[in-house]
Amino acid sequence: MNHFDYIDQQILLQIREDARKPFSQIADNLKISNSLVHQRIKKLKQQGVIKKAEFIVDEKRIGFKTKSYVGITLKEARYASDVVEGLKKIPEILECNYVSGQYAIFFLIFAYDNQHLRKILYDQVHQIEGVAGTDSFICFDTNFKRQVSLDSLGKKNAYNG
What we know:
Blueprint: H1 6-17, H2 23-30, H3 34-46, E1 66-74, H4 80-88, E2 93-98, E3 105-111, H5 114-123, E4 131-139, H6 153-160
Antiparallel strand pairs: 1-3, 1-4, 2-3
């Protein structure tokens, strides 16, 4: 990213708080023009900084009581991309990452209960060609969840300097 300044940072803080906040309210809060807010948000979207605005659904309230992180070991490294493609087809898997260490792939899954989790793992995940095994880590509760800090962006240049 070539140019990211204090105004961009403040706009991001405003829309992260509430993505539906009107641009005019952001402009009033920051004491800048409405057109500047529009221009900056358009620029941030074009640069890929802002990807989308979305509602956050509480998984537990819609019946997904089991949250688990699952590590996958592969039969061979060459299966990694095929395994990821297979995981994409399972709607209960919300996030998937290549990782270092004991596992090649780590993913986040929500299931209705432990039996549903077992069924997904045994009947779907373990059937994907290249999966050698899985280890599941049940999440009892999420203590906090946040996005990357925007407050320290000004310090980034001092760190790189």
